[in-house]
Amino acid sequence: MHFELSEEHQLIRKAAKEFAKSLWEGVVERDEQAKFPDEQVRQMGELGFMGMMVEEKYHGAGMDTLAYVLAIEEISKVDASAGVIMSAHNSLVLYGLQAFGSDAQQEKYLKPLASGEKLGAFALSEPEAGSDATSQHTTAIDHGDYYLLNGTKNWITNGGHADVYLVIAQTDSEKGHRGINALIVEKGADGFTIGPKENKLGIRSSDTHSLLFTDVRVPKENRIGDEGFGFKFAMKTLDGGRIGIAAQALGIAAGAYELSLAYSKERKTFGKAICEHQAIQFKLADMEAEIEAARLLTYKAAWLKDQGKPYAKEAAIAKLYASEVAMKTAIEAVQIHGGYGYVKEYHVERFMRDAKITQIYEGTSEIQRLVIARDILK
Ligand code: CAA
Ligand code: FAD
């Protein structure tokens, strides 16, 4: 067993840390104004962060999942919105296109997405199908050489800025989840409109939209995998996606902790730094211990994926635990900062708002427990 990062992984972490420093500038304004970080995402593309696990022959950076996790962690320590933009693009869009896309799909879509030239979004959730993802109402009716797509998708990350959308829809309702397909839809397709941006509690500079499809013709060659593979495609995609969200949660927790540790050494009450009060020390000790546990779980899930071993349960465990640690740590970070924690300049209130979503998206904490329980009981 090795608990040390390789030299290559250390370098990747260093590069991500260096880039993440630039995210501090304007992070409060982007959050307040719900402004998408266009320039920062462009730079992430240039640095290879928008195609991290894609092979170089498809214009990706050819790195492994652990490298990807390290990068998301560092980026989310400063700006969790940038973290989720990167995670949805890499784990939910590029992974599936590389693993299951046809040669033509890889040529046409994967290459410009992996180079960072284009942005991707993944559309599974609907107004009435979130946790209960098999209950798809969006339909993709087979018309010979194309599908006719109708319906609404909800809460889609990168929804307004994406160029390419992977849309999950029901073709044959009699077959249940085995009658679902995953289709590639381009922005600008006739009948495809993007709903208004959601006004969110946290990760405010990532953009979240509903998507509306009215008689959108999707050519058959845009279906990923065999007829009826769409639900399994979504589940397999989410197994890896949950590692990305675990890394985002880990970054939020670690970012809130680092700010709290530094603040606790500066702020004085009753004639000494607050870190000299045992009540504050115990909070810091719990943060350190829980973050380290979340980190080990997240890196282990990434490692299993890189080894080609089963990782669905471990990804769910990492996502469940890291998101709970992110929420708890961020709340305690505000507490350590006292009144200053409640105002925007000190950042920890943003970390607290951002942490909450990690317990909800890519499967709520309850759904992670369901996935874990089914695995251990099967
Ligand atoms: N890999 C491959 N196949 C899988 C799978 C996996 N991990 N999990 C399930 N399946 C297969 C099952 O084997 C089954 O197929 P067969 O009948 O052929 O064997 C099929 O999928 C249906 O599975 P279940 O019977 O278990 O379905 P269910 O309805 O009982 O529950 C669920 C499934 C796990 C709860 C699933 O609906 C789920 O994960 N829900 C949460 C949805 C979610 O995470 N959404 C995230 C949206 S993306 C997002 O949020 C992005 C973002 O924020 C940035
Ligand atoms: P519901 O499924 O209605 O759940 C409501 C509550 O009931 C939750 O507490 C849930 O845990 C609980 N619950 C439900 N079923 C069970 C059960 N069987 N046992 C126990 N408890 C249960 N989706 C995408 O497809 N693509 C995206 O890019 C995307 N990005 C998102 C970004 C944001 C900011 C948000 C808010 C959501 C995003 N989502 C995305 C959707 C997200 O995945 C769903 O919101 C999530 O899966 C929960 O679904 P729901 O909101 O319908 O809640």
Automatic annotation (TrEMBL):
Does the UniProt entry include the keyword S-adenosyl-L-methionine? no
Occurrences of domain Acyl-CoA oxidase/dehydrogenase middle (ranges): 121-216
Single GO molecular-function term? flavin adenine dinucleotide binding
Tell me which residues make up the Acyl-CoA dehydrogenase/oxidase N-terminal domain: 6-117
Q: What is any Pfam family matched here?
A: Acyl-CoA_dh_M
CDD domains per the UniProt record, alphabetical: SCAD_SBCAD
Taking the record's annotation, the residue ranges forming a coiled coil are: none
Q: What is its EC number?
A: 1.3.8.10
Q: Which UniProt keywords apply?
A: FAD, Flavoprotein, Oxidoreductase
InterPro entries, alphabetically? Acyl-CoA_DH_CS (IPR006089), Acyl-CoA_Oxase/DH_mid-dom (IPR006091), Acyl-CoA_Oxase/DH_mid-dom_sf (IPR046373), AcylCo_DH-like_C (IPR036250), AcylCo_DH/oxidase_C (IPR009075), AcylCoA_DH/ox_N (IPR013786), AcylCoA_DH/ox_N_sf (IPR037069), AcylCoA_DH/oxidase_NM_dom_sf (IPR009100)
Q: Where is the Acyl-CoA dehydrogenase/oxidase C-terminal domain?
A: 230-376
Q: Which cofactor does it need?
A: FAD
Q: Record's family? A: Belongs to the acyl-CoA dehydrogenase family.
- PANTHER family in the record, alphabetically? ACYL-COA DEHYDROGENASE, ISOVALERYL-COA DEHYDROGENASE, MITOCHONDRIAL-RELATED
Identification of the protein by name: Cyclohex-1-ene-1-carbonyl-CoA dehydrogenase
The record lists the organism as Sphingobacterium paludis
